[in-house]
Specification:
The protein is of the alpha+beta class. It is built from twelve helices and 15 strands. Helices cover 38% and strands 27% of the residues. Strands 8, 9, 10, 11, 12, 13, 14 and 15 form an eight-stranded mixed beta sheet that branches. The longest helix has 35 residues, at 187-221.
Length: 426
């Protein structure tokens, strides 16, 4: 998952991650990067944010430079962090954290469920995140009600100031400033931080919307389709011809299972099925284009138009890995006295049209063409031949792994029977 807060590739990682203040267990550190490491003079930090900030692609680089500009403007920053809520099925938010003495900046994720932990309930910025209320706490003595602040105080912090930015969805993005100067922030320091807050809020708001849009497109359409749509490929009948391996999967007797079990059990069953089948597709550089009830349509684009062998191998490995994971899922479901399920997978390859189809104001980004239709028909033959995986003869001809012919079989919509292939018997 690409991050708006990810660091440029040119930034060097420190030889070892710096020591962290413990207790922030619901954070997952994604990377620790070397920052600029020196104050930047010039002042007019708010103007710099609005004029030059939008030109800096990396959010980590932007926040690092912002902090060093504030230090160059006389602000005694010691630690700073910025976190933004997300709409994403796996993470609740993203953030970045800057350290002056360590001269590093961390990229982190906040996982779903963190809002139910003691760490969050006892967080000094909970009211800032939930209501946008500024939080200012001097650290002259023990801070027993906030364990995080007590740890910061023992590490040298003397003052802690949190500001909410523009509300987005359920919460407020929050920026936190801390100093280690004896006596804490001065009134002038606080005024400087409050003065730049509207400019920082404007920059963060635009980046958060862009990031959330990309996340949602990745989640619901896939990263390839999402990037094409964000790049402007949004018109009906707009598409391109690509060569790809097509994978179609379908669950056996899903209608019967749906009739026999409660809705939440059916959803759990579908989630188990999709987890087993879809994860290997992404791992093998494939892309799921859509879920069709209990079916999956995925493609593995050919990296070389003249050579399908690599993409066919990746597709076959994804299919066999999915079947292996499904066997594990069924074993676990059997131990819980839950219904097991079977699936069929069809693989074919060829040229497809990859783009938008639909009505004038309601579009679907997908692949269409005879190759897609044949992949679907081959998947349908898995029921008749009692095989979990079948491929076309065109697929078997180029795939580096050996496949065995299962003979010629009539295929709906075709005049001539199609020779289909399967995995060798163990």
């Amino acid at each position: 998952m690409a991050s708006d807060l990810s660091a440029p590739q040119s930034w060097a990682l420190p030889p070892e991650p710096p020591p962290r203040i413990s207790g922030e267990e619901f954070f997952r550190i994604e990377g620790v990067y070397s920052g600029l490491g020196a104050p930047i003079l010039g002042g007019e930090v708010g103007r710099w944010l609005l004029v030059d900030g939008p030109q800096i692609e990396s959010g980590i680089e932007l926040f690092d430079e912002l902090c060093w500009r504030l230090v160059g403007d006389g602000l005694p920053l010691w630690r700073a962090s910025l976190q933004i809520g997300m709409l994403h099925p796996l993470i609740r938010g993203i953030g970045t954290r800057w350290w002056r003495e360590r001269k590093v900046i961390e990229d982190y994720r906040i996982l779903h469920g963190s809002e139910n932990t003691d760490e969050y309930r006892l967080s000094p910025i909970r009211t800032t995140i939930e209501r946008g209320t500024p939080t200012r706490l001097r650290l002259d003595g023990p801070v027993r009600e906030f364990p995080l602040l007590e740890r910061l105080r023992r590490s040298g912090a003397t003052d802690y100031f949190a500001l909410g930015l523009n509300r987005s969805f359920r919460s407020f993005p929050t920026v936190v400033w801390a100093t280690d100067r004896p006596g804490g922030f001065s009134d002038v320091d606080i005024a400087k931080l409050e003065d730049i807050n509207p400019a920082l809020a404007a920059i963060v708001d635009a980046r958060a919307i862009r990031r959330i849009s990309a996340n949602l497109l990745d989640t619901y359409l896939g990263p390839q389709a999402g990037r094409r749509i964000l790049a402007g490929q949004i018109f009906r009948a707009q598409g391109e011809r690509i060569r790809a391996v097509i994978m179609m999967t379908d669950m056996r007797n899903f209608t019967g299972l749906s009739d026999r079990f409660a809705g939440d059990e059916v959803i759990e069953l579908l989630d188990d099925y999709f987890d087993a089948v879809v994860s290997p597709i992404g791992e093998k550089k494939g892309e799921v284009l859509k879920f069709m009830g209990d079916g999956v349509l995925a493609i593995f684009p050919a990296e070389d138009d003249e050579d399908f062998a690599p993409s066919s191998l990746r597709a076959l490995e994804a299919a066999t890995d999915g079947l292996a994971r499904l066997a594990t899922v069924n074993q676990e479901r059997r131990q819980r006295n839950q219904p097991e399920f079977r699936i069929g997978i069809g693989l074919h390859l060829g040229e497809v049209i990859y783009g938008n189809v639909g009505s004038a104001d309601r579009l679907d980004f997908t692949v269409i063409g005879p190759a897609v239709n044949l992949a679907s028909r081959i998947e349908g033959l898995t029921k008749r031949l009692l095989r979990p995986l079948l491929t076309s003869s065109a697929f078997a001809e180029v795939c580096p792994r050996p496949l065995v012919s299962l003979g010629f079989h009539p295929v709906r919509g075709l005049y001539q029977p199609e020779e289909v292939f399967g995995l060798p018997e163990p």
